[in-house]
Design goal:
17% of the residues lie in helices and 25% in strands. It has 321 residues and is α+β, with helices and mostly antiparallel strands. The strands form six sheets. It has a four-stranded antiparallel β-sheet with strand order 2-7-1-8.
Length: 321
């Protein structure tokens, strides 16, 4: 697999956070539109058997990663330390990856400090009011039923950027194709309410994935929601937050039955420890196919893979926080 860090610039508010599994779905639709149904089916061959052609991370503020989901005592053994402050300091600069894990907290920033210190794209959530329309009369009808949706608004100053960590099988899907498809998603818009102008972004430079690595890694640190079920892990040394994806079809498939079967995932930032660590670029599994996710489109698949970074997990982190 080839790897790259795609730096993007949001151009509008987003309808929700940029999540890797959702981005993969939209890139699959973009491939279908640009290259055709047969090309997409070729790329998806082997997807549910450990051979993904593309794996997408969440979108992170440029130059930063979310702190791994570990017990708080991993970062501070001093009981006098304010653990609420630790929880708020969740953004880790990639330049700190060469430090021991226990020292990462010293480099972490909370959302307010990150906004002041950098031009990284960090969103503030604001409600947007809507009202239901009776399409037969093009009015609100007899009742007035307003409701609101959250929107993710980025900093107003120019140059805010986000990083996407992407993996692709260069024998089947080239770097140029990957960039082109990502640009297509940015032009149309990512996520909810893209048809009303949300979720637009431009694609900038592609950075080399040359991050510092620990000398003796023991675990994988995930950069997107993934499906670790059925794989071999040391339960006492694996940490994650469960995340249920209530997925829906996008693009033209919304005209059919739009809902997909829910899937249980480990949220981004999970730390998964195998019995024996081996170098890997991603973990998890491809979900779906044969009608398991959607009876409307039986071949539907879901990204249950996640890009990973190596992590050296100290022994004391397995204790109960």
């Amino acid at each position: 697999m080839e790897r790259g860090i795609f730096r993007i610039r949001p151009q509008t508010a987003f309808g929700g956070p940029l999540r890797g599994d959702t981005l993969f779905g939209q890139m699959a639709w973009a491939i279908r539109h640009r290259y055709g149904e047969s090309r997409l089916q070729e790329l998806l061959a082997g997807y549910t058997t450990g051979k993904p052609f593309l794996v997408c991370s969440d979108g992170f503020p440029a130059g930063y990663l979310p702190r791994p989901n570990l017990p708080l005592r991993t970062f501070a053994n001093d009981p006098a330390v304010d653990h609420k402050a630790i929880k708020r300091r969740t953004w880790l600069p990639v330049t700190a990856l060469d430090r021991p894990l226990a020292e990462w907290f010293d480099a972490c920033l909370d959302a307010e400090a990150l906004q002041k210190a950098t031009t990284a794209a960090l969103a503030a959530v604001h409600p947007q009011s809507h009202n239901r329309i009776d399409r037969r009369s093009n009015t609100t009808g007899e009742g007035f039923a307003p409701f609101s949706h959250s929107q993710w608004w980025f900093q107003t100053r120019q140059g805010v950027e986000m990083d996407l960590y992407l993996l692709w099988d260069s024998e089947r899907f080239s770097r140029e194709e990957c960039r082109t498809v990502l640009e297509d998603v940015g032009l149309f818009g990512y996520g909810r309410d893209a048809t009303t102008g949300l979720g637009k972004f431009t694609v900038g430079e592609v950075l080399a994935w040359n991050l510092p690595q620990p000398e003796q890694p023991t675990s994988y640190w995930t950069l997107a929601p993934c499906a670790p079920q059925g794989l071999a892990w040391e339960g006492s040394r694996s940490y994650y937050t469960p995340f249920t994806r209530f997925g829906r079809h996008g693009d033209m498939a919304v005209l059919q039955q739009p809902f997909k079967s829910p899937v249980l995932l480990a949220d981004s930032g999970a730390v998964l420890t195998p019995p024996t660590w081996q170098p890997a670029f991603f973990t998890g599994q491809g979900l779906g196919g044969e009608g398991t996710l959607s009876w409307a489109i039986p071949e539907t698949v879901q990204q249950g893979y996640a890009p990973v970074l190596p992590l050296c997990l100290p022994q004391f982190a397995s204790e109960v926080a």
